[in-house]
Amino acid sequence: MDWIYNVKDPIWETIVGSLMIFIVVIFLTRIVGLRSFAKFTAFDFASTIAIGSVISSILTSNTSIVHGAIAIASLLGLTWLFSVLQRRSPAINKLISNKPILLMEKDKILYDNLKKARIKESQLIAKLREANVLDFSEVEAVVLESTGDISVLHKGDGDLPLNWKLLEDVRRN
């Protein structure tokens, strides 16, 4: 029954450690900013996963709260640094940012772009259903965003036409 509960488990230390690391993460996020846990770039995403892993190590292994807090602060500091560099340097921005790609333009599925993005037609259609698209003729554009999310821009009865400036930075091929 040790796999369910072991009297040697540091239950109180885990509870106190959880509270302490929670406070540290909130404090550091207030300093660095909410972008800390956004997923604008692959680096942001990797940093968020790494911070989760560090928190897990703090709570379930021999990693001390101070050691874990320093690791989290380092990761958030790097995230902040890369966001500053990304804004200032087009080369770094290109290196760490994925450019969105158009998957559908109007009612036309762009099969070459689906292949580049490694997305199956059935996955695209599932996203159209999620967006309550009833017919391909309603679709203005479908974009695989740099975050990995899929945006479906569609019209309904009486909707405004799409402002194509919304797709200015989107790869078409």
Task: Record the SSE blueprint.
Blueprint: H1 11-32, H2 42-60, H3 65-88, H4 90-96, E1 101-105, E2 108-109, H5 111-117, H6 121-130, E3 139-144, E4 150-154
Antiparallel strand pairs: 1-2, 1-3, 3-4
Helix pairs in contact: 1-2, 1-3, 2-3, 3-4
Description:
- It is a single chain.
- The mean pLDDT is 87.
- The protein has two domains: 11-95; 101-167, 2-Layer Sandwich (CRO Repressor).
- It is elongated.
- The protein contains six helices and four strands, in the order H-H-H-H-E-E-H-H-E-E.
- It has a four-stranded antiparallel beta sheet.
- The termini are far apart.
- Helices cover 51% and strands 10% of the residues.
- It is α+β, with helices and mostly antiparallel strands.
- A hairpin with a 2-residue loop joins strand 1 (101-105) and strand 2 (108-109).
| Stretches with pLDDT under 50, minimum 5 residues | none
Tell me the radius of gyration: 22 Å
Helicity, in percent?
40-55%
How many helices does DSSP assign? 6
Average of per-residue pLDDT values: 87
H-E order: HHHHEEHHEE
Count of strand segments: 4
What kind of assembly state do the chains in view correspond to?
A: single chain
Q: What is the terminal-to-terminal distance?
A: 58 Å
Look at the helices and sheets and give the structural class. Answer: alpha+beta
Query: Mind describing the biggest β-sheet?
Result: 4 strands, antiparallel
